[in-house]
Each structure stands twice: as C-alpha cells, then as structure tokens.
Prior knowledge:
By secondary structure, the protein is an alpha+beta fold. Helix content is 63%, strand content 16%.
Amino acid sequence: MAYLLYDILKNQKSPIMTEKEMKEKKIKVEDGHTVHEEQSDNCHHTKDMAGEKAAEGCNHEKACESHCGSCHHEEEAHEGHEDNTIQKVSDELDTLKDKYLRSVAEFENYKKRTLKEKAELILNGSEKTISTILPVLDDFERALADKSDDPEAIREGVRMIYNKFIKTLESLGVKKMETKDKDFDTDYHEAIAMVPGLGDNKKGKIVDCVQTGYTLNDKVIRHAKVAVGQ
Length: 230
C-alpha cells in the first residue's frame, strides 16, 4: 500500500515548488499570496509614477500659488505706480495753472498801465516842450514892456530873442533846413516857382526860400517852400 501511494505521487506533478524554482520563476509570496516579481515590479513602478505625479501636482500647485502671489504683488506695484504718476501729473497741472493765472493777471495789469501812460502822454506829452519855450515867452513879455524908442535897440532885442528861440528848438531836436544853393530835393523841399534864365549853373538849384522848413530828430515836420532855377 505504501509503495503504491509513492508511485502515484512520483508520477504526478507536484504543485509545491521549491525556493530555487520560485526564484527561477521570479515568484514570491506576499501576505500569504503568490505574486510574480514582474507584477510586483509593475505595481511598484505604478506606485512610484503615481507618487511622482502627485508630487509634481503639488509642486505645480505651489508654483501656481507662487506665480499668483507674484502677479498680485506686481498688480499692487503697478497700481501704486499709476497712483504716483497721476498725483505727479496733477501737481504739475496745478503748478502750470497757477503760472498761467499769474501771467494773465500780470499782462492785464501791464495793459492797463500802458493804456494809462499812453493817455497821459497824449494829454501831457507837450509838457517838456512848453516848459522849454516859456523862457522865450518871458523875453517877449519883457521886450513889450520896454518903453524904449530906439529902433536899433528894439531890433537887437528881437534878434537876441530869435537866436534864443532857435537854440531852444534845437535842444528839443528841431532843426532849421539850410536851402541856399542846395539841390532841389522833393524829400525836403516843395517847389512853388520855377525861375528861368539864370544859367546852367542854377538849373535844378534852389534860388530862393519862401518858407523855412524844419526837421524833428531828422524827420521832416515841414517842407521848405522854395523857388527853383529852370
């Protein structure tokens, strides 16, 4: 009976594998279960990949949070810069407005002052001239008050007053035009007569002055009325 049982077990394949065979088959027992090492490696690899992905996800979330924080700080900094720029522009605008208002006020004052001075000049512009001529008027009054009957003395007095008056006019810029033997010039002279038969040397020359001309600071204020040789 024992020999018979031995033969049966010997002829059948034993389901029990030795440790050496399990290593060759890459089989191991975990928690009472038989697991191929290849499957176990795959499982570990899958777990490792899942862990890495989870870590990458966490890192990505942290990076996103950091990026969002940076963006938030940048937005705050940009808003602060815009506020400073607006304030700076507002201050400059106030300064320019103040300068403009001051300039307008100064110009208005200048215009009023100029108009006032112009009006005073029109009314009282001859004050200096009159004040300068008054001494000549005083001489005429004294000459009229003189009871002398000497014609030569009277003539000499009138000549003195005349010379004084000419000097007074020259001090004011008034000059008498010299016309004797001068060439006729329409800028200074006005011909009222043409005198023929005086010879070629008198042609175009002034032969007589009927009314004296005067200039004020080299500007003609009265043309001399003259007779011209033809």
